[in-house]
Design goal:
single chain, alpha+beta, outer membrane lipoprotein receptor (LolB), chain A, 11-stranded antiparallel beta sheet, two-stranded antiparallel ribbon, 5 helices, 13 strands, elongated
Length: 332
């Protein structure tokens, strides 16, 4: 726009200078104010008092942080207190501050459980052990055995009942064995075994001795640690010593039960033998119990055997049943 032209302040139309009013809208001509010279001062000074002035916010008061002790100082002080307490406690225990010094408590160390013999066995147990270990024991022995197998083991329940009435003396044996109603008479003489169907069968020499026929040594109890004393017990009007086996004793279940327990396919996992002896150590009676239980507590296998002893220590004569009788001497 040239210098001889002006702009209307209302409609912004351009017209010639010198006219009193805008020919377009009729607004009287008013010259535009001359802008002031720029203030060489700061931005804040230049626009002070105008809408463009910088808004100044009040500064927040400073937050004073609490002074906390450093971790290293705390740990150091704690260690010093602990050391001081130990020193004072030690001096007190040594009686440095006077007074009676209490005895230090004994330390108890746990040990793993092992089967061990009881120290309260009666003196006569040595006699009992010598008789139980004696291959040449002389005694009359009656045995009743009952073994029961649960149906869950192999699909059918089974019960085996065995009874024996035998005399043992000097390593020889003579007696009868009854299984399922059948009775066999047997002899064991000088290491040779004979049997026959009782009562009138023919004697036959056997090359193999069934383990159940080897009655001595009794029960396989060989050491004192295999027994413990339960206490005195009254049986048939007499006071007896009641002994019981410990975990050191591992029985031959087939020999004790007079039956091949392995034929069942399982064996007893819990066993116990109770033994009653006279005050001088002679065996009077015994009772064996063996079981294997299911998870619900019922017996999968149960073995019960009872023994009765008499004539202990009295020698017996056991003859060979197949020996030919010696010829009678002719009279002179």
């Amino acid at each position: 726009m040239s210098d001889d032209m002006v702009r209307c302040v209302r409609c912004h139309g351009v017209y010639e200078a010198g006219l009193e009013a805008c020919p377009r809208c009729g607004t009287t001509y008013r010259p535009l104010p001359i802008a002031p010279a720029p203030d060489p001062g700061s931005y804040a000074d230049k626009y002070q008092g105008t809408p463009f002035a910088m808004q100044v916010e009040a500064a927040a008061a400073p937050v004073l942080q609490s002074r906390r002790p450093r971790p290293g100082i705390v740990v150091g002080v704690g260690v010093m207190l602990m050391v001081l307490g130990l020193v004072v406690g030690g001096l007190y225990a040594l009686g440095a501050f006077g007074g009676n010094r209490s005895p230090a408590p004994a330390l108890i160390f746990g040990t793993s459980q092992r089967p061990s013999p009881t120290p309260t066995l009666p003196p006569s147990v040595s006699t009992t052990l010598s008789q139980l270990r004696d291959m040449n024991l002389s005694a009359h022995i009656k045995i009743q055995s009952r073994s029961t197998l649960d149906v869950r083991v192999n699909g059918s329940s089974q019960t085996v009942i065995v009874t024996m009435d035998a005399v043992v003396s000097g390593g020889d044996e003579s007696g009868t064995l009854t299984v399922g109603g059948s009775t066999v008479e047997f002899r064991l003489v000088n290491g040779s075994y004979y049997n026959r169907v009782a009562p009138t069968g023919k004697w036959v020499a056997r090359s193999v001795i069934p383990p159940a026929m080897l009655l001595t040594p009794l029960f396989g109890i060989t050491e004192a640690k295999m027994l413990r004393l339960v206490g005195p017990d009254m049986r048939d009007g007499q006071t007896l010593n009641h002994l019981q086996t410990t975990d050191w004793w591992v029985p031959d279940q087939s020999r004790i039960s007079l039956f091949d327990v392995g034929a069942f396919g399982i064996k007893a996992t819990r066993t116990m033998l109770d033994l009653w002896t006279t005050p001088d150590g002679k065996p009077v009676a015994a009772s064996f119990s063996g079981t294997q239980d299911a998870q619900d507590g019922t017996h999968l296998l149960k073995i019960d055997v009872n023994f009765v002893f008499d004539q202990v220590g009295t020698p017996q004569v056991i003859a060979n049943p197949m020996a030919k009788p010696s010829p009678k001497a002719s009279p002179t």
